[in-house]
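Q: What does the assembly look like in three dimensions?
Context provided by user:
Components: three
Sequences:
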Amino acid sequence: MMDFIVSHYNYWIYIVLMMIGFYGMMGKRNLVKKLIGMNIFQTAIILYYVSIGCKKGATVPIIPEEAHGVIHHINPFNYINPLPHVLMLTAIVVGIATTGVALALIILIHRQYGTLEENEILEIRKND
Amino acid sequence: MISKNLPVLIVTVPLMTAFLVVILGLLKRKLCYPIAFLATLASFIFSAMLLEKVILHGTIHYYQGGWLPPWGIEYVVDHLNAAMLVLVSFVSLMSLWYSGPSAEKEIPKSKIPYFYSLYLLQITGLLGIVVTGDMFNLYVFLEITSLSGYALIAMGEKHAPMAAFNYVIMGTIGACFYLLSVGYLYIVTGSLNMADLARLLPHLYGSKVVLTAFVFFIVGISLKMALFPLHIWLPDAYTLAPSSVSTLVAPTMTKVGAYVLFRIIFSVFGPHFSLEVMPIAHNILGWLAAGAVLFGSIMALAQRDFKRMLTYILVAEVGYIVIGVAIANRMALTGAILHIINDAFMMSCLFLVAGAIVYKTGTRDIYQFRFLHKKMPLTMAVLIVGALSVIGVPPMCGFFSKWYLILGALAAHKWVFIAVILTSTLFNVAVFFRVIENAYLEPREPAYAHDGGQPEIVKFDEAPIGMLIPMFLVAIGIILIGVFSGHIIASIIKFAIPANI
Amino acid sequence: MEMVHSIKPLLAILTSLVAAFLILFTGERHPNLRDFWSIAASVIKFAIVLSMLPIVLSGKMIEFTLFQIWPHVFLQFRVDAFGMIFALLASGLWIAVSFYSIGYMRGLKEHAQTRFFFCFAIAIFSAVGVAMSGNLVTLYLFYEVLTVSTFPLVAHKETPEAIKAGRKYLAYLLTGGCFALFSIGWTYYLTGSVDFAPGGFLAGHGTANQLRLLFLTFMIGFGSKAAIMPLHEWLPSAMIAPTPVSALLHAVAVVKAGVFCCLRVILYVFGPKLLSDLNLWIILAYVVSFTIIVANLLAIAQDHLKRRLAFSTINNLSIIILGAALLSPEAIKGSMLHIAFHGFMKITLFLCAGAIYVKTHKEYISDMNGIGRQMPFTMAAFTIGAIGLTGIPPICGFISKWYLCVGAMETKHIIFLVVLLASAILDAVYFFPVIINAFFKSPQTSNPGNHISEAPAFVVVPLVITAIFSVVFCIFPDAFTHFFKIASIATQNIMGVH
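A: Here is the predicted structure of the complete assembly.
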């Protein structure tokens, strides 16, 4: 049991991070805190992706020059899988764009209501 | 040259134009609208050409940059997504056409270039989701769609930024869940290509990882397509968005979400997975969808804001589609796909009408629609077509998808779903006839009825022609799709349903 | 049976659809031209229907397939003998009512006349569509259009009361529509077919209990339009509509479409044999017998003339269904004849009620004392219609009721004969006071004297003509439109397969 937990520690970390982020998004009233929660949530997934590409003792997937011509000697276990990492470049860009849009919205919201507390905003909307 | 690269042109033309619009917009603002229009028109024409090709020659594969799958990104166009492409690009074209006069009134002048840029990005994303054959590429397009959607919705009226912010939070959760699901599938298969996954997954049906991936996928995409009870972001966001935006996102976004649901369940996981390994998934989906139909119809009845009422109808319509997916026999799936097509038209039609009413009268309150049949008779005629279609009066298209859903439910002995579909029909009657009554009838005192007295004179004051033409085209579409639903099924939908169902 | 392929059914149906849009686009600017479209379309339509009559009389069927709705289901028109009766009735009486409604609407200076005539034409379009439908799906299509297009007519006055009646109308009929849709879907699922076949096509499919449930949902579905109790509530409320609407739609087209659909289901979907095997006929017969008696008792209590006529309609609709439910050839023939003859008599009565309203604005029977002296033609026609419905010769109601009674005797269930006769007596109980009031009591208010002052000719002439036809059809049941022969052919077809 202990072994199982330890050997999958990357998954546990991502789950914990994700839950923290989820709590931030759902539980917090302040919109900026919600946004921070969202960032943690996204980061957790990025970490998860990055970790699944890793292998113990493996190195970056750059094939040394002398290996040309003897390709069948390449042992995949010596190289980490670069694909998830590349995917995450895209995901990071998406994450940043989302954060940007959300921050812009927060500025608009603050201009409109003068507050960023969700309950106060709802109160204002109700009286409107 | 063009015909060879059609699948990618559909996406790249609006994408490139989106940047072009900003640059040109800085020089001359008047240019934005015609250029955006031309780009969407091009997408529509390409989609139509593609559909014709697919019907004649079968599925088309396109390898991005010449990289073969499963390494490169592959665009696959089969009957299902060829039809979806035509549908999405047609609805987009109509709403873009319509946005000419509408956006002029609702969007500040200085923001017009950005508005059209975002608009085109939204269309790019929607078309990209449909055309791609790659799981991660789908995620990217999903986010393009969502991001531009957030910004477009925030351009709306007073409380729109707050609605958009809620949408950002919910939408991001949905996208992240989808991404997680893709990650899980990647762990066990090492592939992101849909066709490749479909080949690899049947050997891994027992794996818990695949199960988890499936669940994450369902939750994620349910958030994006606003399946009850994950729809809470939708009514606010779509009500408060500018009319020209809600006419685009309301019909297309949820339908594209439904398409993704259909595609991944049946083309990637394969029908056997969810039907045999995880039949409970279909049960849960079915009950949620039934809940969506009832909840949406009842909530629609409780609204007096016309656009908000439509958003709840939209929630119910998503339910219809998912009911079809949940029943998952040939009839029901025919109904589900047909309903995706029909509902895009119906919602487009109704939101266009809502926008036109707001444009002319500035109100969305149903009880202030009096005398609208004199003021805007053409718009009201379109409203009736859309309303009758949602209710399901033949020969409008809404009837035919309901008919197939009912037949599918009959064959599967799902009596509850039949009851739900029929009950919601009645709710829809109440919902729409309340609007029609207010718009058409002029309640008077009984004594007044006979004295021949004239009510206050209401002048004919229709929406501009640029808004009327798209409305009429969509309304004609509703009738034509209804009349020719047999042909659509025989030439497209029949091939879109997995053969082993 | 021999098929003749012809485009005539489509033309007959489309005539009024085209007319509807011509009316809409002509609008209030040219009221004369607009009303001309109504009349022209009604005459052309009737002519086309009539031109199909010889083919039907020679025992053939006219078929026209427009296109495929989905695999194996077509948008198909098929004119058989039974459909011919209803088509002749609806299109023939449309001519009379076209003239009448022009007089009526102009006489009362009603508002929104364009909408009225537009919806009226659409309603006739769908009623004849119902008559000529070749299968359940086509039938349902027109059935729903009929329901929706009549709503603006019911709510025409736009008073709160009228709107409430309109809502009630929609609620009942569209709920019924849902049941009908479900039943049609189920039928298609069970048999893979929706095409009508004389003598039914459901036999041999599904279990007995499934079929019983299916019959129930069918009857709830179409019975709501046929105003079978307890689904009748909308019909008396709908009498708030202008009289031409009540006359043509709530005595002829709409409710008859409901009855027609019920008969189609009984005779062409289930078939007499299956119904008697399942013992369903007797349940249906008892339900409609209940309606027959109770509707007549309720009619006695009405003082509002049109409401009294509405309950009489409910009664007669159930009589028609009873005839079909009895499943004997004579009764079926009787009920088919009653569809046509009741149409002529009831439209006369409604048109009279409308004429009285146009002239005097009176709606209640108790106000109509002595009105027969003021409006002798109208009240004479009313008398003909009233005694005809009671079943007294020489008015055509006698013929149909005679066959119904003979059919009831054939079944050896004397109770149904008793029901029919009791209903005839009750008819007399509520109709004769109207006649007595009109002719023999002196007016309460200041007497306008004995001088005759009738409603406009546009109003009076049509009702006199329908009254004359009511008499002619008794003496020569096979005159002009050959109702008697058509009904015999239809009955033969149904029982022949039996």
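Follow-up: Chain C has one domain: 3-497.
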